[in-house]
Structure formats: C-alpha cells, structure tokens
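User: Show me sequence and structure for the first protein, then do the same for the second.

Assistant: Starting with the first protein.
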Amino acid sequence: MSASARASASPDTTALSEQIAAISRAARAAAHALAFAPSDQKNAALREMAASLHAARRTILAANAADVAAAKRDGLAEPLIDRLTLTEPRLTEMVRSIEAVIELPDPVGETVRSWRRPNGLEIRKVRVPLGVIGIIYESRPNVTSECASLCLKSGNAVILRGGAESFRSNQAIGAAIAQAIAAAGLPSAAVSLIPTADRAGMELMLQRHEEIDVIIPRGGEGLIRMIAERSRIPVIKHAKGVCHVYVDAAADPDMAQAIALNAKCQRPATCNAMETLLVHERIAPTFLPSTIEQLRHAGVEVRGDERARAIVPGIAPASEADWSTEYLALILSVKVVPSLDAAIEHIRRYGSAHSDAIVTKDDSAAQRFLREVDSAAVYVNASTRFTDGFQFGLGAEIGISTDRLHARGPMGLEELTTYKYVVLGNGQIRE
C-alpha cells in the first residue's frame, strides 16, 4: 500500500468536494477577521503556537518517524527523505522561526508612500493582506508551521495541503497550531489543513477561486507545472533551483573553494544548493584539482565538460541535460569557461533564475554579474545557501519565488501583502 493510501483512504468525491468548499468558505470568513486583528493579538497567537509546538514535540517526532519509515519502505529518494525528516534540532528551528516572526514589524496598515495632489487630495498607498492563501507542498513538514506563522502575522488565512509522505507529521503540527489559535481567540479557520492526502483534495482546492486568492506551490518541477496548468487561481511559482557559482579569474582561491564546498555540501537537498560550478579558464588549472578533491572527499559525484576532465582526470562526462538539472543530491556539474561573458550566457541559458554567485576580487566583474544575471538572488563572494527567509532576516519564508509577479526570492511578510489606495479629500469633485 502506498504512503498516500496509508495516510488516508480515497474519500468519496462528493463528500470531499463539500468538505473542501466548507474549509474554503471558513477561511474566507477568517481572513476578514484577521485583516483587522491587532498586532498584539496576532503575536500572542504566535507565542502560543511556538509553545504548543514545543509541548507537542514528542507527538510530532513520533508522527514524523512513522512518515519516514513509510517513505523508506516506499523507496522515496534520499534527498526527499532528508527533507521529510524532523529531529529535535530541526523542531527547535521551527519554534525559533516562529519566535523570529513575532519580533518582525507587522506590515498590515503600513503606509508605503503618501503624497498630496494640487487639488488638495491626500493619497496614501497602504499595505493590506492578500486574503486567503493556498499552499501546496511536498516533503518538508516544517513548511506547515513556517507558512502558518507568516500568514497569520500578515493577516492572511491559509489553507495548507502537504504531501502524502508527510501526512502524519503535518496533522500533528496542525493540531498543535489549532490549539494555539483557539487559545489566542482567533478564528479556528485562520490555519486549515486539507484533511486527506488524496490527490483529489488538491484538485478540488485548485477550483476554489471564489474563496482562495492565490496558490503558492512548493515542490518538484512536475508538481508546480501541474498546478500552474490546472489552477483556476493565480499561482506564484516556486520552481527548481539550478544554482551556479562562478569562480572568476580574479577570485581568491581559498575563498572560492570554501564557498563552493558550502554551496554544494552544506545541505545538498535544498533548492539553493549549487548544482553547477563555472570556473574561468585562467584559474581552472590551479583551482580545480584541489577543489574537486575536496568535493570528492565530501562524497560529491563530479561531472565535467571536456576542459574540466582534461584538468582533472577521472571526472565523469557531463551531458547536455546535466547543465539544467536540479540534482538535490551530492552531484555537481563543472564547466570551464573562457570569460565572464561565457559564464553569464551559461547561467542565462541553463539557470532557473533562483540564486547565482560570483567569486571575484574584481569589482567591475562583480558589478557586471550583479547587473546582467537576472536571478531572484545574485551574490558576490558568498554562498547561494543564504537564499532563505530566515537568513535574510525575514523570520521565515513562504517559499522562494522564481516568478516575477508578484514577488521574487524569499517571500516573507511584506510579500504576503498587497496594497490599496486611501484617498482623503474635503469635498473635491472632478471637473
């Protein structure tokens, strides 16, 4: 029996449709109340949420252990199992993430800009919540608490649909969150979980365009493509991370090696891990041998182009498909390039507009890279692994958008708001 079947038997379609409709309508009503909830009340709910997760940690870890065991029996890929697995330290990170959101300023009601017209009208551009957010995600149960905390703080109701492989974990986390919301006196539908792992639940959720304002998918390329094709609701895509580190001719070799090792090895199953290392031909003969030795020592399978293989014998050949592959594993493609122009062109052709870095002491090269590489996050002399809401000081993140509308990069509180114009007059009429 599959993980999905073990987590929840296939429900009656009519009954499930009515259930999803009820959840969506309740979320819409909750969103109206949350939009006017004072910051103190929202922060109190978040404090309750953090405390509730801590108190329920044994229940959550037991549920997660059952999910992990089932995933291993089902032959789930190792990177996905890593994403699925919760530990005491990871659960502590979840609690700290909520606590960090408490400390952030509430964006709701902020005046972004104000101005006065010659006729005396005062116009203000003011942040307001998006409304009801639907989030569909795979594997990572920490997404449940992170998204709940960010949506609540930004005044949005959220409907969460996690993957079948993390169903037990998500339900345990959701129960702790529900207890916290009730204790804070906020609407129970402020945070809702789709109560089935059956795919039909997701399909029905994507049709609720009258109640849900935006869908944010987090997962593999296939999941995101399917959601974008089938959703009747606007989608903010969080697509794959084919991230690059380019080692320029003017790079500090020790710095470049440290960044490359961190970007690939620190946690390879994440979307901000490096998948391709580009090295300028002038530094490649001295830089690549020791760097590839260190990568191999860390367990990385290295695949290279002809020039990289000529410098370091024994590297497996990289195929055309490798350059656009998000491995999410200890596999790395390496290419020797003749110039900064060639590196930028390679990123433009094969990258996913997620996170890309240059290592260089040449300021003009750095500035060109920043200007011409059109990714959500572009780095100079730093690891791509920093593309993360917590690392950016956003408290947590809904995800990392590779879209252009309505947000790019890590989506925090501000990215979960839109705006309205508030216009103040004293009797003006248009002639």
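Switching to the second protein now.
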Amino acid sequence: MVESKALAALGGLAPSDPNNGWCAVRTPKLYHFDPQTNTQVQEYLANGIDLKNYALKHYEPHTSPVKKAQCLGFGRGLGQWLKHFHQWAEQSQDLRNNAAENTSIQRLKHSTYYDYLIQMIEMFPTILSQAKEVFESVKSMSERELEDDSTLQAVHGDFWTGK
C-alpha cells in the first residue's frame, strides 16, 4: 500500500528543535493505517499545541523579548520541519503518483487556496496589496502544476483548527 508506506516513512523525518529543548516540531508516530477506511492511529501528543493557539497565547503586540524569541524559534522550527517534509515528499515517486491521480481534490484546493488568496487582497488592501504580484505568481505556479502533474508538490496542511 502506497499510503501506509508513505505515512510510515513520514514518521522518520527528524524533529526540528530550534530552542534547544524548549519545543520541538515533529511528526506524531503512526501506529496503524487502514487503507480501506483511510483510518490512522497516531501517537497522542498530550502537551502538543497547534500553531494558531500557540501564537494567540504567547505572541501579542507587547510580548516580552523572551517570548518573542521563543515564538520566532518555533516559527523557524516549523519552517525547518516543513522544508524537510517537502524534500522527503519530492523523493517519493509512489506518493507523487498517488497524489497526481486525485485531480478533483487538486482543483478544490487550488480554488480554495489560490482564488481565495487573490480575493483577500481586495478585502485587506492596506496589508496585502504590496504582495499582489507574489500571490498572483504563486497562483500561476499552481495552475501550471495542475496542467503538468510531473511538477506537483506535496501539500502538508494549513494548520486550520476549524475555529
């Protein structure tokens, strides 16, 4: 099974620890995957916190320099882990082939992420207008990927908590 091999291999990604033991960004251990029901049994990370809630709790406009450094370290750790994830995913031809077959979800994600991203510029022009060219370039890159699945990149997730 491609999915179970890929998921098991994902657990082998090294953790990213930017703050010397204060926090680590890593993949939960996968204990079982049932491809028939797409069910995963993963390690429970009791002290884990999602990015949104961590940032809301610790990074406010008047955050202390210590907390600010920790938040920035966490962001660097997350970035390092995601970089390793994308490097790992790029090496897995089975994973890439599997993802290329799912064209309906590719179109949905493109519409949800990139069309919506351009709409955000109109909603928040003061903040986002200077990034319009970059956003349009990213959207074009995504459209080219949809036309040529050999250029597809893995998408890990967007850290949305649903709230």
